[in-house]
Amino acid sequence: MFFLDRVLHHQKLLEAEPNRLKKRTCPVQALKTGGVIRKAVNRVGKLKLNNNIMSTNVTDYPSVNFNGGCGEASGSVPNSATSTGMQPFQTATVNGGPPSNCVIANDGGTVYGITILNIAGPIYDYQISVDAQGPSGWDSGSMYLAFTDATGDTYYLSIYSSTREIHTVDYNSSSPAIVTIWWCDNSFTASGEGVNQTKADFRVTSPAKKE
């Protein structure tokens, strides 16, 4: 009985007290529900930590436009588009529109989005996140992509699955901004990358692991 009285008393206090959470202007709010702490961090990209799983709403990132080729590159020479540099927490447009308008391959291979993240991991500091699907159908092969940063290093990604998924390329760089995007139906070496040039170190996860 004593416990019930205490609960009722506490409930009356809460009802009488203004909802202070709604009035807070602090950029970080924490709500505890069922023993799970959820935080919403209001900043560029609106990173959200929910049940210890980080996700990113890339539609909130500022975009950087890449100008150049558009459409399928069916031969051995890739199409490419360049920009002044897409920095971490920025996303790409191509020729003024979404990448899916231009960055395409045979049999439905399509890139829907390209974003740079600063992951500050134990091995790699930066990540290219690619929302894409590979070609569909028997013997349709893969879609081949490459990304060149401001140092001249190029990172490669091939997409085989025709399911639309996220694919990632982790890398380190003293100047991580991506300045050129390349794509082709066939495997290629990016223009300007010499035979004797040291290959950049990077890690591909295709598709990205789901938590």
Task: Give the structure's gist in a few sentences.
The protein has 211 residues and is mainly β. 9% of the residues lie in helices and 40% in strands. The chain is globular.
Which residue ranges are poorly predicted, with pLDDT under 50 across at least 5 consecutive positions?
A: 1-10, 16-56
SS field, number of helical segments: 2
What is the spatial order of strands in the main beta sheet? 11-10-13-6-5-7-8-9-12-14
For the sheet with most strands, the description reads: 10 strands, mixed
Broad shape: globular
Mean pLDDT across the residues is 79
Rg, Cα atoms, Å:
23 Å
How big a fraction of the residues is strand?
Answer: 35-45%
- Class per helix and strand makeup: mainly beta
Q: Report helical residue fraction.
A: under 10%
As for the number of domains, it is 2
Order of secondary-structure elements: HHEEEEEEEEEEEEEE
CA distance, first residue to last residue: 45 Å
Q: How many DSSP E strands?
A: 14
Account of the protein in words:
The structure is a single chain. The chain is mainly beta and 211 residues long. The protein folds into 2 domains: 18-55, no CATH class; 61-205, no CATH class. It has helices at 2-16, 20-23, and strands at 28-33, 36-41, 48-50, 53-55, 63-68, 79-86, 90-94, 110-118, 126-133, 143-149, 154-159, 165-171, 178-184, 202-205. A hairpin with a 2-residue loop joins strand 1 and strand 2. It is globular. The two termini are 45 Å apart.
